[in-house]
Amino acid sequence: MSEEHIVRSDAELAARVAAAAGRILLEVRESTLLSGKGLGDAGDKTANQFIIKALAQQRPDDGILSEESKDTPERLDKSRVWIVDPVDGTREYGERRNDWAVHIALTIDGRPEIGAVALPGLDLVLRTDQTGTLPPAGDPLRMVVSRTRPAKEAVEVAKRLGADLVPMGSAGAKAMAVVRGEADAYLHTGGQYEWDSAAPVAVASAYGLHCSRVDGSPCLYNNPDMAMPDLLICRPELAERILAEVADIGKLDAE
């Protein structure tokens, strides 16, 4: 992306930055013998430097919150804040898998209005300004869960729905599996941060999917506390049932 060229559209900027960062990450992975955490750290650092510089050049008045940069309080006073995760799924990236992502979101007054999620291993960028029709629901239903530590609530809800579990890597990869019709729901209760979900929620919402916290409240961003511990992204016709099941499981656990 040329430093001299001004990208007029926020959505186009998000998509370009996500795609370019994805290409950089693939190049880093191809050009090194590093693996595991060493490769993940190298990718995080390189992609973050590119993303922060690109956004600062193109939108110098906006705030930026990145997993890989030191947070500063200035963003809290801004209406427009970019929330980014240079490598969502560092473990998967370090293991040279494909189920990792690059997240670029623009929140406006706390709401994830614009964004892009790149899946570089699949040569895909999903974005808020170029959406399509949701494929039919699965039969049986399919719920994506962590491939290493599936949340007990998600496993129990899948059991109650008669849904198949689909293990997968990063949060972005799981959320985009629902967007792409490879799954019907993504329920997470194991703890995350704003950069894990801002871009996926922006894109999933643009596609007409239900996105909320597990108590049904909206996902709001650019908070002083960056923790965003739970999330539901699913087909809209499933939202009421899944939220009810989560609430019921919570009651049983409290007894």
TrEMBL record:
Transmembrane segments: none
Alphabetic keyword roster: Magnesium, Metal-binding
InterPro entries: CysQ/Inositol_MonoPase (IPR050725), Inositol_monophosphatase-like (IPR000760)
Protein origin, superkingdom: Bacteria
Gene3D superfamilies reported for this sequence: 3.40.190.80, Fructose-1,6-Bisphosphatase, subunit A, domain 1
Pfam family, any one: Inositol_P
Record's keyword annotation contains Iron-sulfur: no
Cofactor: Mg(2+)
GO MF: 3'(2'),5'-bisphosphate nucleotidase activity; metal ion binding
One biological process term in Gene Ontology: 3'-phosphoadenosine 5'-phosphosulfate metabolic process
Ligand binding (Mg(2+)): E67, D85, D88, D196
Keyword Metal-binding attached: yes
SUPFAM superfamilies: Carbohydrate phosphatase (SSF56655)
PANTHER family on file: 3'(2'),5'-BISPHOSPHATE NUCLEOTIDASE 1
UniProt-recorded name of the protein: 3'(2'),5'-bisphosphate nucleotidase CysQ
Organism encoding this protein: Pacificimonas flava
